[in-house]
């Protein structure tokens, strides 16, 4: 997408510097900073500290991390060590392990002297694949928005609600939940997006920054406002992203997604999830019982970062001294609450049958 008129991916390979560049998302939406990743520790820290975030982007970053490790030492032992090190960074988003497994499985069949070049090309390929997957998700999601728009009086916007940032910044480009929004806007379909703040890290501010940069009408709302808006007929469609989806269609996403799905069901609002196929975990059935939920630092709850009156960025405590913060980062929305899954191959029911019909080649893949 574009920042001040210049196209950026969320990460890219700088051939002149022979190194990976990332948008350091810790400073957004207030400051746009680019960071070069120079060591395997830098790759791990980028994921843990959420310099990069979003399941697809984490996966691609990890693939570049494997490529970096193979430059330093292309042995089997070093490859396995890098896999373990990067896999331990974050537990919930399945794209991380998917990318690491894909890298290691391919590199095992390559002679050590060729591993560095093969690993780097693979990382480039995964980045390009992610862009194309998300573009196609947008095309399929566009038709859902167009259908609603066609049922409205001329000029009345389709009102969408989204949670967290499943946008360009959470992927290499386009985003998942936002891709249909970008496609609709570019097709001159009037839309307005309700953007949940998404405490505690306020990733909704990233979504608002993205949408504003693209010229899309939007409002930033508290996490608890969505149900109220649905009750008063101000939401036509909910689209969220996902960090891991089970083979039966249970969806694990940023904490608070489950509550949005419950409110949507109670108010007969369609609730769709934008799902790139690498985010499907075919080894898991019951998301509530089987998906590990990351517990992040309580400081993310007790403190907030923002722009101060003098324009500088700072952090302030919002809780009484001594109060602990509980911080589960994700929740699971059961498939019964999901109207459908928007994938790069089309839209399907959130069910084993729906997913296996669209992805018969992946159901039994190792």
UniProtKB/TrEMBL annotation:
EC number in record: 5.3.1.23
Which keywords appear in this protein's UniProt record, sorted alphabetically? Amino-acid biosynthesis, Isomerase, Methionine biosynthesis
Which residues bind substrate per the record? 53-55, 90, 203, 253-254
Source organism superkingdom = Bacteria
Q: Where is the active site?
A: 243
Keyword Isomerase part of the UniProt annotation = yes
Report the coiled-coil segments: none
Write down the top EC class of this protein.
Answer: isomerase
Q: Which InterPro entries would you find in this protein's record? A: IF-2B-related, IF-M1Pi, IF_2B-like_C, Initiation_fac_2B_a/b/d, M1Pi_N, NagB/RpiA_transferase-like
State the signal peptide span.
Answer: none
* Molecular function as annotated in GO: S-methyl-5-thioribose-1-phosphate isomerase activity
Is Isomerase given among the entry's keywords?
yes
Catalytic reactions on record? 5-(methylsulfanyl)-alpha-D-ribose 1-phosphate = 5-(methylsulfanyl)-D-ribulose 1-phosphate
Kindly list the biological process annotations in GO that this record carries: L-methionine salvage from methylthioadenosine
Q: Which Pfam families match?
A: IF-2B (PF01008)
- Family membership noted in the UniProt record: Belongs to the EIF-2B alpha/beta/delta subunits family. MtnA subfamily.
Purpose? Catalyzes the interconversion of methylthioribose-1-phosphate (MTR-1-P) into methylthioribulose-1-phosphate (MTRu-1-P).
- What is the protein name for this chain? Methylthioribose-1-phosphate isomerase
Protein species of origin: Parasedimentitalea marina
Source gene? Answer: mtnA
């Amino acid at each position: 997408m574009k920042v001040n008129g210049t196209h950026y991916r969320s990460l890219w390979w700088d051939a002149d510097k022979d190194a990976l560049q990332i948008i350091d998302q810790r400073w957004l939406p207030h400051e746009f900073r680019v960071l070069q990743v120079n060591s395997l520790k830098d790759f791990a820290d980028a994921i843990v500290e959420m310099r990069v975030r979003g399941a697809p982007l984490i996966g691609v970053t990890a693939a570049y991390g494997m490529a970096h490790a193979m430059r330093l030492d292309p042995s089997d032992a070093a490859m396995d060590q890098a896999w373990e090190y990067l896999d331990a960074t974050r537990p919930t988003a399945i794209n991380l392990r998917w990318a690491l497994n894909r890298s290691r499985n391919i590199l095992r069949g390559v002679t050590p002297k060729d591993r560095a070049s093969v690993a780097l090309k693979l990382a480039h390929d995964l980045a390009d694949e992610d862009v194309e997957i998300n573009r196609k998700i947008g095309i399929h999601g566009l038709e859902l928005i167009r259908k609603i728009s066609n049922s409205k009086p001329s000029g009345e916007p389709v009102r969408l609600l989204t949670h967290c940032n499943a946008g360009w910044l959470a992927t290499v480009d386009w985003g998942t939940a936002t891709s249909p929004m970008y496609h609709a806007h570019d097709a001159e379909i009037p839309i307005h997006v309700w953007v949940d703040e998404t405490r505690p890290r306020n990733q909704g501010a990233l979504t608002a920054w993205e949408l504003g940069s693209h010229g899309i009408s939007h409002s930033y709302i508290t996490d608890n406002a969505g149900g109220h808006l649905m009750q008063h007929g101000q939401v036509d469609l909910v689209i969220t992203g996902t960090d891991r989806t089970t083979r039966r269609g249970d969806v694990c996403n940023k904490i608070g997604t489950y509550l949005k799905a419950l409110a949507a069901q109670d108010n007969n609002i369609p609730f769709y999830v934008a799902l790139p196929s690498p985010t499907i975990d075919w080894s898991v059935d019951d998301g509530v019982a089987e998906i590990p939920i990351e517990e992040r630092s309580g400081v993310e709850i007790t403190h907030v970062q923002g722009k101060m009156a003098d324009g500088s960025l700072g952090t302030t405590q919002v809780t009484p001294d001594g109060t602990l913060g509980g911080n589960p980062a994700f929740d699971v929305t059961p498939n019964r609450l999901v109207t459908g899954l928007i994938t790069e191959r089309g839209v399907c029911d959130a069910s084993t049958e729906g997913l296996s019909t669209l992805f018969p080649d992946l159901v039994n893949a190792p």
